[in-house]
## 1
Amino acid sequence: MAATTDVAMTGAGGVPATAGAVLTIDLDAIAANWRLLNAKAAPGSAAGVLKADGYGLGAVPVARALLAAGCRHFFVAHPDEALALRAALPDIEIGVLHGLMPGTAEILRRHRIIPVLNRLAEIEEWAALARAAGERLDAAIHLDTGMNRTGLEPREAERLAASPALLGPLRLRWWISHLATADDPGHPMTAAQAERFRAIVARLPAAPTSLANSSGLFRDAVRGFDLARPGAALYGINPTPEAANPMRPVVRLQARILQVRTVDTPGTVGYGAAHRVGRGAVIATIAAGYADGLKRCLGGIGTVLAGGVEAPVIGRISMDLVTVDVSGVPGAAVEPGRFVELIGPHRSVDAMAADAGTIGYEILTSLGRRYHRVYVGNGPSSGVAP
Ligand SMILES: *Cc1c(COP(=O)(O)O)cnc(C)c1O
C-alpha cells in the first residue's frame, strides 16, 4: 500500500496523485526532429507548423523548443492561434495559413502576423491596408496546384501574372503551395504539383518559394524550393510510411490503473457486453478513454504496456475508461495508482493510428485537454514511473 502511494505521489516529473493520465512530451526530440528536417531542406530552411496547438502537443512550448533549435518561421492555421502564440512570443515570425478571414486584416497587421493570402480579394485587401497604413506589409501567397481547398485558382494566378501591380506595397515573403500525395512515394501527383508550382511561379514576380510538408522533404521531386513547412514529422509521425521512421518519438502516454479484479464468474466486460471473460481472467481498468483521444474503434484492439508486459485491450473503450486483460502480468505491477503505457516505446502513435484506421495526425490532435502534461528535455526514455 505504501509503495503504491509513493508511486502515485512522487512519480518522476512530480505527477500529482490526482492526475489520472499523463502525456509526456519530449521537447529535445522535437528539436532534434527539426534539425533533421532543416538539414533535408538545405540549402533552404525548415519552418515549424504549429497549427491545432502544435498538433495537440502545445504550440507555445513547442515554439520555444524550435526557436532554441534555430527555427525562425512558424505557421498556424487560425488567426486566433496566431494571436495566442503572439501573446506568448512577441518577436517570432508567425504566418497564418487561413489567410485574411473577413474582418481580421487590421488585427493581423497590428500583431505583425503574416497572412498566407489565399484569394485575389485577400491580396487586394491586404495591399489596400498597406497603402492606407503607409507600411510595407509582409505577405505569403498560396497558389493552388491541385488540392482545390485553399489558394489562388489558376485563373487568379494568371490575373496576378498579368497585373503584378496588384501586389501594391506588399513585401512578398513566399509563394506557397501544398502537396496532396507526398506521403505516397509512388504517387505521380507530387511531381506534377512541383512542376505546376515551378511553372506558375516563373511567370510571377520573384520571391522565395515554399512547397514541402514533412513527407515532401523526403521526395526527390520536391527539391529546389526555399522554405519547407513540416508539421507532423516534428512531432514524431513517420513522414515516410513506406519505410522505417527516421524521426525520434516525441510522445509518451500513460494512464493509471484504477482497479484490478480477478473474474470468478464468467461474464462480459464493459458496454454492449461485447467481450467475454472466463473464470480467472484478471482485468485492470485504466483511467483514460475516448474523451482522451483513445478512439472508440480501438475497443478490443492493441495493447498497453503493464509492468513491462504487453496486455491486450478488451471490451469497448468508454469515455473515461479502458479495460485491459492483465492475466499475464505479475501482480505487483498492476496495482491501483500504477501507470500503464498506451503510447511510447512499445507502441508508436503511427501504430495506434493504423489500428484505429486513421493517421497519426488525428491521434495526436485528438489527445484532448485532460492529461497531466509533462514536458521533458532529456531523451525519449523519460516519463513517469510505471
Ligand atoms: C498542415 C500543413 C503543413 C504541414 O504538413 P505536415 O504534413 O504535417 O508536415 C504544411 N503546409 C500547409 C499549408 C498545411 O496546411
## 2
Amino acid sequence: MRDHAFSFSFPWLAVLFANLGLIATPTAADTPPGPFAMEWSTTNFGPDGPWHAVQVYIGTPQQPISLYPGGTLRSHFLTPQICSNKTLSPGSCYATVGGLYNSNSSSTAFINSKFSAFTDFSHGGLRVRGPAGIGALDDIRIGQGAVPNATIAIHNDVESIYPGGATQALQVGTLGLGYLGTGQLQSFTGTASALSGNVIPGYLKAMNITSSNSFGLHIGSVRPKIPSSLYFGGYDQNRICGNVSSQQGPFANIDGDVPSGFIDLLDISINVIDGSSPWNTSSINGILTSGNSSVGSSLSVVMLPEAPYLNLPKSTCDAIIAWLPVTYQPNIGLYTWNIDDPQYLKIVSSASALSFAFRKDQLNSQNITINVPFSLLNLTLEAPLSKNPIPYFPCNAQSYGKYSLGRAFLQAAFIGANWNANNNQGTWWLAQAPGPNIPSQSSAKTILDQDSAISASDNDWAASWKGAWTALANTPTQGPVDLSSGILATEAVDEEDNGISTPVKGGIGAGVGICALVGVGAAFFFIKRRRRSAAAAATIAAKLEVESLPPPVPSKNNDKQLAEIYGNPLYEVQGCYYNERFRPAESHDRPQTPICELAEGRAKQPVYELR
Ligand SMILES: *[C@@H]1O[C@H](CO)[C@@H](O)[C@H](O)[C@H]1NC(C)=O
Ligand SMILES: *[C@@H]1O[C@H](CO)[C@@H](O)[C@H](O)[C@H]1NC(C)=O
Ligand SMILES: *[C@@H]1O[C@H](CO)[C@@H](O)[C@H](O)[C@H]1NC(C)=O
Ligand SMILES: *[C@@H]1O[C@H](CO)[C@@H](O)[C@H](O)[C@H]1NC(C)=O
Ligand SMILES: *[C@@H]1O[C@H](CO)[C@@H](O)[C@H](O)[C@H]1NC(C)=O
Ligand SMILES: *[C@@H]1O[C@H](CO)[C@@H](O)[C@H](O)[C@H]1NC(C)=O
C-alpha cells in the first residue's frame, strides 16, 4: 500500500498521510463493525439558517462545542478571543452560542503554532478574512467514542465580509469529514520534531471501531423539521430516495490544495410536484444558463456543508429570482422575501421545488435531479446580519467565480464518501434526501473498506413531503386564470361569498400578515385586518371586486418613511396605501402590495440593517 504525500504551498510544511494499517488490529470477527452515529446539538444556529450542528466535547476537562460538519482533515474551533476582540464582536458575541474552545484550560491540548491552517474554513463559501488558524491537537469525544489527539485548527480573529463592507465574526466552527489515507496526519516543520494527530473517520477505521474511512451525511432542516444524520463508516439508508450518483476522486481537498470534488450542474429548473402551479406556467427550465452564454453546457460546483448559501453566477440567481417575490439586498448580496406579496406564502408552502440536475456517475448520458422544496429556501437572516429576523432566499450572487452548493441545498441532499474506495483515490456520492416524513428508526448501513457503491431506500420522496407542504388546489373553473396574479389556492374562491372568507390555512401563515391585491379574472383582493391580540388571530379578509373600489385618492398620511420607501404621492383606498405605479384601479400585470398595516403610524415593513 502506498502512502499519500502532499505538499502545501507553504515551503515549510509538508503533510504526509501515513498508512495506519499497522496499528489497526483487524479481528477475525464475522461481523464487521457497524456505522458510528454522531450526536447532534439540540440548539440551532444562524445568522443565515437556522442550521443544525453536531455536538462534540473537546479537551480535558471536556468543553462542549457545536460544529457544522464539513471540510477535510482538521476540525476548526473558534476561541474566546473572538469575543474579546471589540472589532469583531462590538456588542454581543454571537459565537458563544456554539461554544468556544479555550486550549489554555485543557490539559490535553498540544499547540504547534508553526503548524498553521488555512483561515477560510468555509472554503470560498463565504468571504473570510483573518490570520491563519493555529494547528493543534486535543482529545475529542464524539457520539459514543473518543478520538485522542485529533488534529484541529483554532481561530482567534476570523470574520466574513459582506458586499456592503460589513464584517461579521464567524459563529460556528467545523467538524472535518476525513480525507484520503487512513487517518493519521503527520507534519514536519523543518528540523523540528514531528507532530502527529488523528483524523476522525480514519482513526475510527484504524481502531476497528468502524469498517471504513467514510461518512454519510444529511444535514436535515430546522424548519420544516427534518432531523439530521451523520455516520462515520456508514450511512442511514432512509436518507437516500431514488438514484445515487457516484463520483470518483476525493469528496473535497485539503485546505489550500487543488480543489476537487466537483460535479457538473447541468441545469436548474422550477417544478411543481403536486397540485397546481403558483406560477403562470407549470415548470420553468433552462435557468442555469439563462442570460449568460458563457456558462456553457454545465457549471462545475462543489458541495460545501461548511458554508450556507447557493453560490451561483449572478445571471443564474437573477434568472431564478425573476420568478420569486424577493428583493435584492446589496449590502449582504442576498435576497429577502417580500412577505407581503401573496406569491410569497403561496410559493414557500406549495408542493414546488427548485430542481438541480447534475451529471450522474460522471457520464454524459445520465443525469440526477435533486429537488429542493421552496419551504427549505425560506431561511432567516438574524442579528448581526439583520436587526430583526427576516426570511431570505439563499442565492448568493457574490460568488467571485467560486461556485458551490452549501447547507441551503444540502438540507435536501444526501452526501457521503468512502475515502479509501477507488484504490485510495476516493469515491463520493450524491442523492436526493427525503423531507420531514422519515421513518423514525434509522436504517444504518455499513460501508466496507473498499465499497464504492451504496444503495437507496425504497422510500418515496414526494411522500416524504406529504403534510409538510400544501398542494395548491386546482384553479377555479372560471375561464383562463393568470396564476401570477396571485390567488391563494388554499382558499378556493367561493363565488357566493361576496364578503368574508377565511384566508390561509392554519399554521402556514402564522405570524405573517397578508395584505395584497390579488386577482382572479376580474381581480379580487383581500384586506387583512390588523393583528391586535391572540384572540384576533383568526384573520378576516374582505374580498372586494376592483370595479367597485372607490377611485384612489392621494393619501393624507404624511409618514416620511412610507413616502421614502414607496414614493410620493401615496394613494389611499380602504385604509391601504399604494404608490403611483401601483394604483389599484389601474393595476393589470403584477399583484400589488399595498401597505395596510400601520404600527405606530409606520408601515410594518421589515427593517434591514447591517451593523
Ligand atoms: C498526543 O500527542 C502528544 C504530542 O505528540 C503525545 O505526547 C501524546 O502521547 C499523544 N497522546 C496520545 C493518547 O496518543
Ligand atoms: C480583531 O480582529 C480584527 C479582524 O480580524 C483584527 O484585524 C485585529 O487584529 C484583532 N484585534 C485584536 C486585538 O486581536
Ligand atoms: C456568466 O457566466 C460566467 C461563467 O460562469 C461568469 O464568470 C460570469 O460572472 C457570469 N455573468 C453574470 C452576469 O453572472
Ligand atoms: C409569467 O410570470 C413571469 C414572472 O412573473 C413574467 O415575467 C411573465 O411575463 C408571465 N407570463 C405571462 C404570459 O403572463
Ligand atoms: C436528463 O435526462 C433525461 C432523460 O435522459 C432528459 O430527458 C433530460 O433532458 C436530461 N436533463 C438535463 C438537464 O440534461
Ligand atoms: C418562513 O420563515 C419564517 C421565518 O423567517 C417563518 O416564520 C415562517 O413560518 C416560514 N414560512 C413557511 C411557510 O415556512
## 3
Amino acid sequence: MAKGAILGFCTLLAMYCTNTAGYDTYELRDFCVRLTTNNTALVRWFDPMPLRKEKQGYTLYYSKNLDDPLRNWTTVSLGVYPMTTIRDISLGEVYFFKVRINFWESDASGPLSGVHHFKMLNRTKSCYENTQHALNVLRAAATSKSTVEVWWKLQYDPYKVNSIIIFYGTSDLGPWYNQSAGLQNSVELYDLVENSTYFIAVAAKTDSGLHYFVQECSVKVVLEEVPLNANVTDITADSMVLEWSAPLRLFPKYYKVSYDALKDYVDSEGVRQHYVLDKTEIVIDQHLTSYELVDLMPYTNYFVNISAVPLDLSYRPAVRVKARTEVGAPGSMHKPVIYGIIHGDNVQVLLPKASEENGPINYYYLIVIPVSDDAERDVPSSMYNTEDLLNNDWFDDEDIDAPYIAAKFSLNIPYAFILGVGVHGGFKNHKLDMHKRYRLFVRAIVLSSQGMLVTDSPYSDYFSVEEKKNYLHHNTQLVTGRTF
Ligand SMILES: *[C@@H]1O[C@H](CO)[C@@H](O)[C@H](O)[C@H]1NC(C)=O
Ligand SMILES: *[C@@H]1O[C@H](CO)[C@@H](O)[C@H](O)[C@H]1NC(C)=O
Ligand SMILES: *[C@@H]1O[C@H](CO)[C@@H](O)[C@H](O)[C@H]1NC(C)=O
Ligand SMILES: *[C@@H]1O[C@H](CO)[C@@H](O)[C@H](O)[C@H]1NC(C)=O
Ligand SMILES: *[C@@H]1O[C@H](CO)[C@@H](O)[C@H](O)[C@H]1NC(C)=O
Ligand SMILES: *[C@@H]1O[C@H](CO)[C@@H](O)[C@H](O)[C@H]1NC(C)=O
Ligand SMILES: *[C@@H]1O[C@H](CO)[C@@H](O)[C@H](O)[C@H]1NC(C)=O
C-alpha cells in the first residue's frame, strides 16, 4: 500500500511539476466500496496527495465488465468531495471502478486512476475502519428497551447540508429505516427491538442528493451506559426526589442531572401563560443514586435528564423522567370592586379571579361581612374560618350580623355579580339590609393532598345600599376589561 501511494505521489508530482501529458494514471488512496442497502453502495476514496491544482471535481466510472471501453461504463460526476452513492447494483456481482480527477483551467481530461474491483457481497465493514477520524464521531447507546440515542460530531458545511439523516437496520438484507435529525447532532431512534443489534449509517442531505459519511456504528439495544430504573418519588408542591441505579457497564466519574420545566396556566387576568423555565444542571457524586430537587414551582411539569458521565468526560445520553409538582395555594387576587346599585336595592360587584400559576382553582367563595363596629376593621380576612362560615345558617327574615358566604363558584368565577338575590352554588345570596354597611372579599380554594389551600382577595371598599357611597359608576365610565 505504501508502495502504491508513493508511486501515485510521484506520478502526480511529475505531472504537476512538468505539466506534461503522458502520465495518465494514478493510485487513489484507500479506495473503498461499502454496501449501504441491498442495492446501493457507497464509494469513497482519498486523494493520493495534496493536490496543487484546484480541483473541479471527480468522475467515477464503473462497470461489471472490465473489457468494455471506458465510454460504455456508467459515469457519475461529482464535486470535490470524494464520495458518492451508486444505485441499482446487483448483489453478488463484481464491479470495476476508475476515477478521474478534473481540474479547473484545463481543457484536457485529468488523470485517471487505476482499476479497482469489488464484489457486491453482504454488507461490508465500514470504509476506513483503520483510519483515524478523531474529529468525526458517530456513536449510539440504548436509552430504554426500545430506544437508542445516536450522537455525532461530523464535519460538513451547514450552508450546503439541509439535514442529517440516520439510516439503521438490523441486517444487510432486511429493511433499513431512516430518521432525519435536522442539523442537530443527536437523535433518538424509537420502536427498536430489545437485545437486537442495529447498524447505523449517517448521511448529509443536500440539494444535490445524499452524501454518506464514512462513519458508521452498531449498537445493541441493551441498557449499558445509562442510569437504570430512574424514577421520581416524594413529590410535593416544591420538591421531588430522583432515584436511579448505577449503569451496567459504565463507571461514572459523576452523574449529571439537568432539568427544565413547562409552565402553562391561566393568570389572574384570564390570559393563558405558557413558558419554559430555564434549565438547571447539577453534578452529583458517583456514589449517590438519589437526589432531591428543591425550590421547584407548584403544579409544574418538570423534565429531568439523568446521565452517567464517564471518566474521560465524553458524552453519554441521559435517561429521562418527568413529573408534575403538587398544587400550591392559589395565586394573588385583585380587590373586588363595588360597581353600583342595581334594581333599586341590590349591589353589583366586580369579582377578581385568582392566578392559576400554582394549580387550577377548585372553587371560590364570596364572603360578605356586615360591619357593625369599627373593631371589625382590623380583622384580617384569614380570621374568618371557612369551617365556621359553612356552619352559619340564617332564616330569610333574620337580621344577619355575622360574615356569611353569599355564593360559591366552581371552575369559573363571574366577572360581574349581583349581591342580594338568588342562590349560588348552594349558598343563599341574602338580601342586603338597607341600613347596614358591608364589605366583602373572595376566597379561592385549591384542594391538595395536604388539605385545603386558601388565598383571600383584599377587602372591597365599604358600601351600603342607603349611603350609595364608594360606588365606582358615580365617577367612572363603565369598566370593560378585567384590568382595574
Ligand atoms: C458500447 O455502447 C455502444 C452504444 O451504447 C454500443 O453500440 C456498443 O456495442 C457498446 N460496446 C460494448 C463493448 O458493449
Ligand atoms: C450473506 O451472508 C450470509 C451469512 O454470512 C450468507 O449465508 C449469504 O449467502 C450471504 N449473501 C450473499 C449475497 O453473499
Ligand atoms: C432489498 O430489500 C428490500 C426491502 O428493503 C426488499 O423488498 C427487496 O426484495 C430486497 N432485494 C433483494 C435483491 O434482496
Ligand atoms: C426514509 O424512509 C421512508 C419510509 O420508509 C422512505 O419513504 C424514504 O425514501 C426514506 N428516505 C431516504 C432518504 O432513504
Ligand atoms: C434481553 O436479554 C435479557 C438478558 O439476557 C433477557 O432477560 C430479556 O428477556 C431479553 N429480552 C428480549 C425481549 O428478548
Ligand atoms: C425507583 O428507583 C430505585 C432505584 O433504581 C428503585 O430501587 C425503586 O424500586 C424504584 N421505585 C419505583 C417505584 O420504581
Ligand atoms: C434532555 O435530553 C434531551 C435529549 O438529549 C434534550 O433534547 C433535552 O433538551 C434535555 N433536557 C434537559 C433539561 O437537559
